[in-house]
Protein 1
Amino acid sequence: MMRKKPQVSICAVVLLLLQLTTTSLGDDGSVMLKLAQSLQNLPSDWSSTSSTGYCRWTGINCDNSNRVTSISLAKSGLSGTLSPEISSLTQLETLSFQINNIAGAIPSLANATSLQDIYLDNNNFTSVPTGCFDGLTNLQVLSLSDNPNLAPWPFPNELTKSTSLTTLYMDNANIFGLIPDFFDSFSNLQNLRLSYNNFTGSLPASFAKSDIQNLWMNDQQLGLSGTLDVLSGMTQLRQVWLHKNQFTGPIPDLSKCESLFDLSLRDNQLTGVVPASVISLPALLNISLQNNKLQGPYPLFPSKVQKVSLDHNNFCKNSSDAATPCDPQVTTLLQIAGDMGYPAILSDSWEGNNACDGWPFVTCSQGRIIIINLANKHLAGKISPAYANLTSLKNLYLQQNNLTGPIPDGLTKLASLQNLDVSNNNLSGKVPDFGSNVKFTVSPGNPFIGTNVDTTPGGAGTPGSKPSGPSGSPAASSKSKLSVGTIVAIVVVVVIFIAVVFFVVYKFIARRKHRKFGRVKNPEVGNEMNKNGVTGGNGTNGYNGVPSELHSQSSGDVSDRHLFEGGNVAISIEVLRQVTDNFSEANILGRGGFGVVYGGELPDGTKIAVKRMESNTMGNKGLSEFQAEIAVLTKVRHRHLVALLGYCINGSERLLVYEYMPRGTLAQHLFEWHDHGYTPLTWKQRVTIALDVARGVEYLHSLAQQSFIHRDLKPSNILIGDDMRAKVADFGLVKNAPDGKYSVETRLAGTFGYLAPEYAATGRVTTKIDVYAFGVVLMETITGRKALDDTMPDDRAHLVTWFRRVLISKENIPKAIDPNLNLDEETIESIYRVAELAGHCTAREPQQRPDMGHAVNVLGPLVEQWKPATREDEDGYGIDLHMSLPQALQRWQANEGTSTMFGDMSSSYSQSHSSIPSKPSGFADTFNSADCR
Ligand SMILES: *[C@@H]1O[C@H](CO)[C@@H](O)[C@H](O)[C@H]1NC(C)=O
Ligand SMILES: *[C@@H]1O[C@H](CO)[C@@H](O)[C@H](O)[C@H]1NC(C)=O
Ligand SMILES: *[C@@H]1O[C@H](CO)[C@@H](O)[C@H](O)[C@H]1NC(C)=O
Ligand SMILES: *[C@@H]1O[C@H](CO)[C@@H](O)[C@H](O)[C@H]1NC(C)=O
Ligand SMILES: *[C@@H]1O[C@H](CO)[C@@H](O)[C@H](O)[C@H]1NC(C)=O
Ligand SMILES: *[C@@H]1O[C@H](CO)[C@@H](O)[C@H](O)[C@H]1NC(C)=O
């Protein structure tokens, strides 16, 4: 913009000459007459027939030559329009028509070079002509706020010439598009108010070169995005309103913003720890951060800060523990996330203060993190040195991301480390020596590893602090900087990719042929191949790391599968065909009302259950609704909830992939134990299972504030693991809106006997309906009888009615207890407590039933009494074994498409055949409510 200066001065001279001519030729009277004719409700001394004496009209000021210098008719009840001739008032400095009801187009003010202040806010203008403010080189204030009926228009880029601008108010003016990046032109700009428009894109970097003190950009319709990093350079800031947008990434360091007193960042997508520099801002009075994804310790602001709002974030503790640090493992994980720019996936899913409480991507043993799997998560930034603090870490998978910078030396100090995979990133620098105990995979990918080339975005001196690329304009510059190395890398990847496609297709065909003749294959051979492949890097198997998306989208027939964006959960139909041996009869675990369930086994031995729903049972449930629900369900992770690992949409059929539970359902253990070759559950096992169920359901209820998460709770939906602990299956989102009723109707038949009486009257699903069903399950657990038993006489057929009668007097209870239970005094006492709880849960009036938390509180101590010495067990339980399932799948998906995996897969076929039991079924009787409505 600077280079224009010489031209500007020539123009000024020309203009001056022009002005002199116009002055001598015409006068402002004719313009004023036009103006008087176009406006209505003018002051009485204005005339629409004669311009005589216009300099004395109310609101008009003139200079000595009768040239109009200001028009000031604010708040005068004016209507009508502004005549286009107004820009001919070449001496006009102030145009002030705010707070009227003037309609029509704003006249072009271009080349009215004397204009300094324009106030047209709070009117009813309908459009702004292109170039309206062109050439206003003396403009200081432009206020167009609150003209909500303006036709949508973009930011007036011609303002870049108005270098004297101090105040720009254009809020609520129907502006759309990007905020231009020329604020370095406005070295005097102090007030920028663009709220309540439809701006998109990121905050321009040139903000840092202006003098903005008051920045109001809140409430954009679609929302501004990108990070807030630019704020840290805006040292004059006093008031910042950026709420109700889509900003991401952490709150930046604001330590230089010493005058900032009002900071409103609520209702965005901000992640990360609230920086100390923000908590200690010297001038701060107001701060609102609620409704973000902020992490780390709950911040404690000094008492001088008058207004603080922090609700609805992902802090590790709550306000009662403000300012206390998170658990050390959580702190370390936050540092790791921080070095990758605090990606949103590591905020939403890493909640609370216990990293071993089912956090995705993390696997623990005995309360210590042993596996971290962040492969293929589109992560940028660097590998954090903080990994070195996780002293029990065995496996670290970071392949298939966009990580840059070096591999920290500290990782070599991890004594337990066995696997480290960083392939397919963009790392550089010296390779640490990991010794022979660590399977270290660095290639393919990482073309600059071992060199000093700085691969961090922006080159030298930008550590991982700003890795998340803003979605707006600044990204463009880095695109053009494709180095030769990158191009070579791309070419290599493409060539490898094509090779892999051919190889995979070849392998697939070969395997098919092979199987026709018999599928015997030595598992040892397969495993050996696998090992070689993963450690690879010797050139023969560089296809190891080709992203699964590429593979799946390009090999075979594209039309029969869908892989969705961010597709950790979408699994291709090929994969499911392979692991279920093309949905072979032999792999059927069972059949439910909605389709067939198949067992399958991933190459690493992880077993899965695949529900394949017949298309006609899906009704017309919309694809997007299905996906939306899947997106929620895959995030619901709890050690007592069966994990949904993924899904597949194949034409009109939908498939859901769950973790496999080897010991069948609670129903089988209670009612059909003999048929399945089980021994009857002991009382201790039963109460433990009941507590597991209560905990799982309690967790679901804690999620209920958004959409209700409903349980179709009954023993056939309670699944048992090898350790005889329970997980709850069949939960999902339930809408209680009138048209949400369908979701419950389909399950009525299945839930009969478990359904609370009020459901029939209200049709509403509430947490108390689950509590009732849980009470019924407790009764079944005590009596060994089904909720409905037709073989019984009528007065005993309905378990709740009968058992509640039994409960009336305590001495009746022993006769009702399952004869398969061994009763000693301690057991009887425990049964009394559970029977009492069952009665309480099945109270007729929903408000008389306790909530699930109460059930947990009653059952907890009963279980506790049996295991004084095994606390450790409980802490480690369920996480080590079960939480690794999604990770195993992810890791496997990440490696999908390699020859070795296919080779290995054939071997696991033979294994899975022998290992899938013919009868016991690790799947729920009914289906997840996501399945079919
Ligand atoms: C403003 O002045 C410039 C330079 O004299 C000229 O090119 C442009 O057309 C003028 N704009 C209007 C709307 O008169
Ligand atoms: C603004 O103008 C629109 C027509 O463009 C009209 O419908 C509306 O009533 C006007 N608003 C006010 C407050 O006069
Ligand atoms: C906001 O702007 C986008 C284009 O940037 C447009 O597609 C969208 O319709 C606008 N929204 C509204 C509510 O005007
Ligand atoms: C703080 O926020 C409240 C409510 O938004 C507002 O009324 C008050 O003026 C603000 N105070 C300061 C000093 O900004
Ligand atoms: C990690 O270790 C470093 C030193 O190696 C230490 O400064 C840091 O506080 C540790 N972080 C945690 C969360 O323990
Ligand atoms: C890496 O970044 C590029 C550009 O930002 C993106 O297109 C690509 O998908 C990313 N790769 C991965 C594996 O996330």
Protein 2
Amino acid sequence: MKHLSLFSSFLLAIALATTSHTDAFTRNDFPKEFIFGAATSAYQWEGAVDEDGRTPSVWDTTSHCNNESVGGDIACDGYHKYKEDVKLMAEMGLEAFRFSISWSRILPNGRRPINPKGLLFYKNLIKELLIHGIEPHVTLYHYDLPQSLEDEYGGWTNRKIIEDFTAFADVCFREFGEDVKLWTTINEATIFAISSYGQGIKFGHCTPTNCSTGNSCMETYIAGHNMLLAHASASNLYKLKYKSKQRGSVGLSIFAFGLSPYTNSIDDEIATERAKAFLFGWMLKPLVFGDYPDEMKRTLGSRLPVFLAEESEQVKGSSDFIGIIHYMTLYVTNRPYPLVFPLNTNKVFSADIGAYMISTGNSSSFTFEPTPWGLEGVLEYLKQSYNNLPIYILENGRPMKHDSMLQDTPRLVYIQAYIGAVLNAIKNGSDTRGYFVWSLVDLYEIEGGYKLSFGINYVNFSDSGLKRTPKLSASWYTGFLNGAIDVASQDIITQLQQNNFSGSFSV
Ligand SMILES: *[C@@H]1O[C@H](CO)[C@@H](O)[C@H](O)[C@H]1NC(C)=O
Ligand SMILES: *[C@@H]1O[C@H](CO)[C@@H](O)[C@H](O)[C@H]1NC(C)=O
Ligand SMILES: *[C@@H]1O[C@H](CO)[C@@H](O)[C@H](O)[C@H]1NC(C)=O
Ligand SMILES: *[C@@H]1O[C@H](CO)[C@@H](O)[C@H](O)[C@H]1NC(C)=O
Ligand SMILES: *[C@@H]1O[C@H](CO)[C@@H](O)[C@H](O)[C@H]1NC(C)=O
């Protein structure tokens, strides 16, 4: 889960008149091969940051330098409690688990030699998943660049990252690829580039000077360019060296807001198309068609890197699927405004789009209206505009205050509505193949640390054993996955609230 504050300048208080009615459905209405899972990421789940040879990543540095507590030092202690968590998944009937690999656990300081204890942890985790019939979906990069590579050359702003990332991917494919068939190279690459390199929030650097000197209004697009090249390089390596034996697929993931015009004016409609070009086309056009969208080239001029012909060939077709991270819908209104100096780095990207984007959800105020039609729109748009590539929804979920605990009815309602949207999209021809709830358990969150959580299983962070307890949403998901729940909305929710459906509640 990422910086929702990016675009939400204020909260939209409009009635969501278009909330669509969802018919009753069950797990069996989805294709048999479709996978339902839940997700975590290494730094947010594992803890054990200085055990068995792991070295710090930029995320360790960021959480400590902000003096905001211990950061992910312990997190959920997944490193030691992975068997317990796999058991929890199995009890829920989860079909898949999405996690990420800590680069600096496997390759301390970013490069060889390999740390055998780091490898062993992931081999054990993968083995445990397979024993329980749970399919691993592995993300190679989830914000945790080895600090040493950041110090050495500035991380993703430098093309040296391409070689190092590819070497890291090579180790992972070779060591885990017999058991892992689904690989995401980079987590939500679009928002990662915007927030870390444009805004300088958290994991990158930001030099808020101005556009003539090389700085934050260039670095977003430079980092994004290097991400595309690094993804393509790793993906092509997989095709050459591993695919014929391992038969897996490799994709890139982007943050996919639902986008809708704020008014029905032509200007807002055109602004929405521009927003789609910047937020989707930026990465997907090169991946599917080999070059950046014209809207971006026109607006950004020399600030947008250029693909050499052979790079374009490398990037084109390098994503076997599109991974999307989806939480909310933005209303887009036309608002051309110039970049003003000194730069407000928060505004560079939306100034480039020439629009304000107004959010329906705001994680810090916990107002998160489900707008499932927004996801349906994204899936339909991807189907029509990007050759109907296979799609995995790698994150979807709703934040609540951590102490709101087990009765998380709003989260249950949210998840149910979005799964319904996925089904609608599939029925209309979208090749969506999987859905992962964010998150399996309460995690160390990017926004809000331990105070805000997305977990469908509660983690008691005050308890030395970090005890896990299923929330109402986990019971709903369990019932749904077992085919025991025929989603008919309110009835089921009331029943769950009264009867504690799975009978698994014990605080
Ligand atoms: C970090 O937090 C601790 C405890 O709240 C405080 O004593 C210390 O001064 C803080 N350090 C910095 C650099 O802000
Ligand atoms: C941009 O930065 C350069 C070098 O620091 C400076 O000379 C120039 O005046 C700045 N331009 C603006 C518009 O701030
Ligand atoms: C369903 O798909 C068709 C064909 O791609 C498209 O024209 C139509 O708008 C879609 N319907 C919805 C509700 O998205
Ligand atoms: C969390 O753990 C602490 C310490 O064991 C305990 O006092 C508290 O009741 C627990 N809270 C919940 C909600 O289970
Ligand atoms: C359901 O769980 C709540 C607390 O989680 C508890 O107070 C209540 O007694 C339980 N109901 C049943 C029928 O077990």
